[in-house]
Amino acid sequence: MASQSSEATEECSAPVNAQDSMVWPGHEATMVTAWGHDWVVVVAPRFPASEPLKFYVLGRERCQGKRLRAPDGLKVLDLATGANSSRLALAQGEEGGALLEHTGSGWKPLALLPEAISEVSASARLIADGDNVLIVDRSTLWFRQDSTWARMALPDDSQVAPIASDTLLLVGSRLYVGTQRGEYGGLLAAFDLDTSSNTAVLVKEASVLELALPVWAMVADAQGQIWAACGLAHLGRREGRVMKFRDDKWAVFAHSDSKSAPNSSWNLPPAAFVSVQLDHEGRPLVLGRGTGLAKFTGVGWRRIGTNWPDFHHVDDRLGGSIVFPNEPDRFVLIDQNTAILAAKARGAFLYDLKSGALTPIELLD
Questions:
Q1: How far is CA 249 from each of CA 99, 132, 180, rounded to the nearest angstrom?
Q2: Cβ atoms 361, 345 nearer than 8 A
Q3: Among 16, 24, 93, 275, which one has the highest count of C-beta atoms within 10 angstroms of its own C-beta?
Q4: Buried (b) or exposed (e) across 282-304, using 16+ Cβ within 10 A?
C-alpha cells in the first residue's frame, strides 16, 4: 500500500502489463462501487479477516484514491448512497454505532443506532435506497423507514436467511438476496420488509430460486427489474447464468457452461459470471471468468475491450507450479471507454477499453 503523498495534484502512473503488476501483501481489492457522485475502491485485509474494510475515494483522474477516515474514535464499516446521492457511512466506536453522512465540508451524524444494535460487528453491511436504510449484521436485519428503526423478523419456514456476507440489494422496501455456497451453489430470494408487522415476507414462492451456482452481484434497472450475475469456476468447470427478476419471479436471461456454450442465450465461450452492470440504455454488461467484459447488444453478446488483462500467476511454494487465477472480480464502466477493475491481490486498475492500457490506481493511506 502506498504512503500518503504530499502532492496536491493527481499524477497517474504509467500503464503496466498485468503480469508485471505488483501483488499487495495481505490486502485484496474486492469491490469498486459508486458512493454519491464518487467512485470508491474497497480493500479487504486477507488476514485477519475480522478486521474492517478500507475505503479509498478516487480523485478526478481516477488513478489515485485517498483513504476515507471517519471522525476521531470511529471506524467506517460500510458505505451506501442515500437520497439525493447523499454519501452515507456505517461507523463504529467505543460508544456504539452511528449512521453518518459525508458532506462537502466533512462528516455529520445522521442517526444514532438503536441500543440493541449499537455494537455492530466489523462485518456489518449498510444498504440504502433513497430514504430507506438497512443494516445487516450477521443474520439480523434492522430497517430504517421514515426515521424509525425496526428489527425485521424472518418467517420460520424461510428457505433463506439473509446474512451480511450475502449479495444484497435494497429497492424501496424490497430486499433481494443472493447467497454464495461455492461449489454447492446458491439461492436467489426477494423479501418485502413490512414495517407494520416488522417482518421480512417472501414476495411469493416463485421469488425463491435454488441454483447450482453462487450469486455474486445484483443491480436494478430503471424499470425496477433486477439482474443477477451467478457463476462458478471450479476444477476446469466454467458455468454462469444471468438471471432476471420480473413479474415476481426469477428467469434465466443467459446461460453459459462448458457443455452448451455457445448457445442461443450466450454466443461466447463458456464463462462464470461474477459481476453485472447496466449501460445508459439499460442493457446488461457482465464480467465473466474466461471471457472478460461482454455487452448484450439486443440480439446477442459482444466482447468489449482490447487485450483483456490476464492476472494469472504461478506459485511454486507447494512443491509444483500451481497457476492461480487472479482475474478481476468486479468492474464499473465509468464512461464508454474506461472501466475500473478490482483484481484482488493485484490491486485496482483503470482499464482503457480501446487501447487495452492498464493503469494502476495508487491508494494513499
A1: 33, 23, 20
A2: no
A3: 275
A4: eebbbbbbbbbbbbbeeeebeeb
Q: Name the pairing type of β-strands 362-364 and 64-67.
A: parallel
Rounded to 5 degrees, φ, ψ at 233 are -120, 105
**Which residues sit opposite 80 in a β-bridge?**
88
Average pLDDT of the segment spanning 358-362: 92
Of the candidates 212, 209, 190, which has an alpha carbon nearest to the alpha carbon of residue 201?
190
On whether the CB atoms of residues 78 and 91 are closer than 8 A, the answer is no
- Cell digits of residue 283: 442493457
Q: Which long-range contacts (CB under 8 A, 24 or more apart) does 92-100 make?
A: 92/52, 92/119, 92/120, 92/122, 92/124, 97/124, 98/74, 99/126, 99/133, 99/144, 100/70, 100/71, 100/74
Phi-psi region of 116 (alpha: psi -120 to 50; beta: other; left: phi over 0): alpha
Q: Is 147 exposed, middle or buried (0-12, 13-18, 19+ CB in 10 A)?
A: exposed
At 69-102, the pLDDT tens digits run 988 888 899 999 999 999 999 998 877 788 999 9
Q: What is the DSSP letter of 227?
A: E
**CA 294/CA 165 separation, integer angstroms:** 26
| Burial (CB count within 10 angstroms: exposed 0-12, middle 13-18, buried 19+), residue 20 | exposed
Neighbours of 166 (CB within 10 A): 21
CA angle 346/347/349 to nearest 5° reads 110
The model's confidence at residue 49, banded by pLDDT at 50, 70 and 90, is: low
At 205 the three-state DSSP class reads helix
Q: Report the Cα–Cα distance between both ends of the chain, in Å, rounded.
A: 8
Amino acid at 245: F
- The rounded distance, in Å, linking the Cα atoms of 354 and 305 is 6
Residue type, position 13, single letter: S
